[in-house]
Design goal:
The protein is built from 15 helices and 12 strands. The protein is an alpha+beta fold and 403 residues long. The longest helix has 31 residues.
Length: 403
């Protein structure tokens, strides 16, 4: 078929989609829409290919690797989650999706640039980021007063704030301060990489975008699905109450996280049915033969990665939210091969494990502190990023004490 003026193959075949992801850089390459690349920047990981993409991805992987998750992210995720949940009042109604966004944003700017919630710079950055995101899903018309033009203007404002933080790091280095006080990504790339100023800023922005959108959407989806599955919510709550009984009220440890077996089932099922990213854009870079089909070089590919997640030949009753489907190790391993929520291959999202950790920690405290219900009927949609038409309004009810 021809899509947007280009010969395009739309694939809902799980095996072929996995082949596309695993053959990145050999048979296929990323084909990010021009409008998104312009907003995120020419050095964004979403737009890059080849060696520079591998270098930037390596920086991101090290930034969010297991050692960092265990020693730096975990305690701060818990702190940020508790700040959000402590602001919820018994019987109040608010947007769960906005609260999830606030949580994810605060966490990312803290670890990217050591910016704390409430700082004037942080407040301004979040305001500009909201405008920036509205332009990501708009018609790419660079005309006055359009969402796209406003997004480009907000990008400039965001880079100005980030650039100021970067300049502060560079100044410290010039003054001979080899030990920077901040333990964030900006400090790391300032001292340990050969990236240019523009490359650093686009990297920080792309990680803020990816970390914010993925985690906030995943947490919102978990709240949405659990609200309609009391049995799953009850079992999840029991698991986390038991963890607290065994360890006391001290902060969560990596060992606690690894013990959250049913929580991981909930996370997998939320990602499977929620489908945060439903499709990708790829381009054929050499003639491909696959199962008797010839695919010419230069053609576009749109792998529908959500197709496998909803395939009844892979998942029984795929439209039903069923965390228990992940409890049998043999079947869970097989199903995990078809779970492509974070893409796959060389472009596997470097923040995949961070997003899962955020979900687990947030749910750990949420299910012990509150019951909730939808204040209005709502549902998840993707256009092109996952959201809720009414921003997922919920009414919360505080739990007095769990025993």
């Amino acid at each position: 078929m021809s899509l947007l003026g280009k010969p395009t193959i739309v694939s809902a075949d799980a095996d072929f989609n996995r082949y596309i992801l695993q053959s990145e850089g050999k048979m296929f390459e990323n084909s990010c829409p021009t409008s998104i690349a312009e907003i995120l920047g020419r050095w964004s990981m979403l737009a890059l290919e080849g060696e520079i993409h591998r270098e930037m991805r390596s920086i991101a992987v090290n930034f969010m690797g297991n050692v960092k998750l265990r020693n730096y992210f975990l305690p701060d995720i818990e702190q940020q989650a508790l700040k959000i949940l402590h602001s919820w009042k018994d019987g109040s109604t608010f947007s769960a999706h906005e609260e999830g966004k606030k949580f994810a944003f605060n966490l990312m700017v803290k670890h990217l640039m050591s910016m704390d919630p409430g700082m004037p710079e942080t407040v301004k950055l979040r305001k500009e980021y909201i405008t920036f995101m509205k332009g990501m899903a708009s018609i790419p018309l660079n005309l006055p007063y359009t969402a796209y033009r406003k997004a480009l203007q907000s990008r400039s404002a965001i880079l100005k704030i980030m650039g100021k933080r970067l300049d502060e790091r560079v100044q410290k280095i010039r003054e001979g301060s080899h030990e920077l006080e901040e333990d964030d990504l900006l400090a790391s790339v300032s001292t340990q990489s050969n990236l240019t100023r523009d490359q650093i800023l686009d990297l920080i922005l792309s990680l803020l975008f990816a970390g914010h959108e993925t985690s906030s959407a995943a947490i919102s989806l978990a709240i949405y699905f659990l609200e309609s599955s009391p049995k799953a919510l009850q079992q999840l709550r029991e698991e986390h109450v038991n963890i607290v009984k065994m360890k006391g009220e001290s902060g969560l440890t990596w060992e606690d996280y690894k013990q959250m077996e049913f929580t991981h089932c909930v996370i997998n099922e939320t990602l499977r049915l929620g489908n945060i990213v439903k499709f990708l854009h790829r381009k054929v870079i050499k003639d491909v033969q696959y199962k008797g089909y010839d695919i010419p070089c230069g053609w576009e590919l749109v792998p529908i990665i959500s197709a496998a997640h909803l395939d009844p030949t892979i998942y029984d009753d795929p439209q039903t939210y069923n965390p228990w489907r992940w409890q049998t190790i043999s079947t869970a391993t097989s199903k995990n091969n078809n779970l492509m929520s974070f893409s796959g291959g060389p472009r596997l999202c470097p923040g995949a494990e961070l997003a899962k950790l955020e979900m687990a920690v947030f749910l750990h405290h949420l299910v012990q502190k509150f019951n909730w219900e939808l204040a209005e009927h709502d549902y998840p949609v993707s256009f092109p990023f996952l959201g809720f038409p009414k921003n997922l309004p919920i009414k919360v009810h505080a739990i007095k004490k769990l025993t």
